[in-house]
Amino acid sequence: MQLDDRQQRLVQRTFMDYQATESFLDNPIVVSRAEGLYYWDTEGRRYFDAIGGIFVANLGHGHPRVVEAVKRQLDQMSFSPPMHGTSDIALDFVERVGQVAPGALNFVKPFSGGSESMEAAMKFSRQYFKQSDRPHKYKFVSRYLGYHGGTFGAMAASGTGKRKTPFEPQMPGFVKVYPPTYYRDRFDNWDECNRFCAQMFEDAIVNEDPDTVAGIIVEPIGNTGGIVTPTDEYFHILREICDRHDVLLIYDEIITGWGRTGSMFAAETFGAIPDIICSGKALSNGTVPLGAMIAREDMAEAFRGDPAAGLNFAHGHTYAGSPLGCAAGLAVIDEIVEQGLCERARAMGDYLAQKLAGLKKYGVVREVRGRGLIRGVELVKDTASMEPFPELGMALKKTALENGLILRVDPTWFAVVPALVIAQEEVDEMCGLIEQSLAAALERVA
Asked: How many domains, in total, are found in the chain?
């Protein structure tokens, strides 16, 4: 699209996430409306949203049930006093999240988004051990290529070098191991690779000294690493390691939660329950910023006792537990449950994977991976050498927008994460746009 002089001037007064202003101005998009699976820009052109905004609109943009819930709450109360109490709807939210969370994870603290939830989980873990007579357990082991948020704590847990180096030095107390995709070519099969990479967590814990390690932090499916999808066994091994060394298992389900993988949480998809789940993004369907830290109920006992002893969670945010956010979250959860959207994500996800596998005919697709309706396609120069093809990804990022498609494209892979309400004919439309854009990108780099 073309920006007028005013729009160009205003773009120069702000910044775009993770891209240079000059790059954005070469291929700009300014949206003004969204509905269902589509955006419209200020010129009236329609775009198929293949990533739910940014993994947010699981129910599609402007879902009437969620919008109506927020409107009703606006008439009732838009803000409650966080330093003095809570609200009735926040307690309803706590109860509902606990009902759908796996295992005994029903201690719930709402926040304003995923990064806040991650920060809370790390602070909660450290304080939990300090108040449980294990005060030296403060370190976290996470993965290279993982991403857990833009705040300093979440960034320190992340393993995305170029996103971190402008802000170094990072916070201490964070150790990294490699994801399975890093070592896959060194093993005969994927299962063996996953066993090795899961064991690396224990190696790190033992060599750091288990008495100093508080938790393991992982995304069940790693987004920024290229939709890294370990085996079920990988997570069972992590669970056993944590149990063996008195370490908390923390899942970053900011992207994989709320039906995305074919279960309410990926913890259920992979069959290994953590001690803490962090969530955000799709929890409010993009209407109001909302996140939640969901922990084992028994962990809360470490924060209860004589007020004079200071036994409280020394953490809070102004908009944590926002009545508007909680109203949206309740509507989202009820819609997922009542409409069977977890089951739909499994069925449509399998169909989507089949359609994306058809792109292998171009000879530049190494792998299609993921679960449910979060799928990733890895791009290579050819399937003999498996050499990465960043030039193709850079071209695809442009051709997708030119073809009216919003896609998450990294130089060597792209992600397809549509709303859970997507129908088969809409999967066909989306995949047609993806193939059209990939073919155009191949022509461009040729």
From this structure: 2
Poorest-confidence range of 59-63, 307-311, 318-322? 307-311
The answer for residues whose C-beta is within 8 angstroms of residue 220's C-beta and 6 or more apart is: 230, 235, 251, 252, 253, 256, 261, 266, 267, 269, 270
Overall residue count recorded for the chain in this entry: 446
Q: Are residues 49 and 133 in the same domain?
A: no
Do 242 and 321 have their domain in common?
Answer: yes
In this structure, the answer to whether residues 325 and 393 fall within a common structural domain is no
Mean pLDDT confidence for 182-193 = 96
Does residue 310 carry a pLDDT above 80?
A: no
Q: Give the CB-side neighbour count of residue 406, counting CA atoms within 13 A.
A: 24
* Contact yes or no for 59/420 (Cβ under 8 A): yes
Instruction: Please give the residue range of the domain that contains residue 345.
Output: 5-62+340-445
What is the residue whose two structure tokens read 């508080």? 214
Q: Whole-number mean pLDDT of the chain?
A: 96
Strands across the sheet with 365-371, in order?
365-371, 374-379, 413-416, 408-410
- Taking a C-beta distance cutoff of 8 angstroms, is the pair 281, 271 a contact? no
- Residues contacting 340, CB < 8 A, separation 6+: none
- CATH number of the domain that 184 lies in? 3.40.640.10
* Percentage, residues of the chain above pLDDT 90: 90
Same domain, 361 and 334: no
Asked if 223 and 147 touch (Cβ cutoff 8 Å), the reply is yes
How many C-beta atoms surround the C-beta of residue 147 within 10 A? 23
The Cβ of residue 26 has, within 10 Å, a number of other Cβ atoms equal to 10
Q: Where are the alpha helices (DSSP H) in 229-340?
A: 232-245, 266-270, 323-338
Cβ contacts of 296 within 8 Å, gap of 6 or more: 103, 104, 105, 107, 275, 276
First to last CA, the chain: 25
Phi, psi of 39 (to 5 degrees): -110, 155
Final residue belonging to a domain, choices 338, 354, 388 = 338
Record the pTM. 0.96
Contact partners, residue 402, CB within 8 Å, separation at least 6: 437, 440
Strands (E), 11-126: 31-35, 38-41, 46-49, 105-111
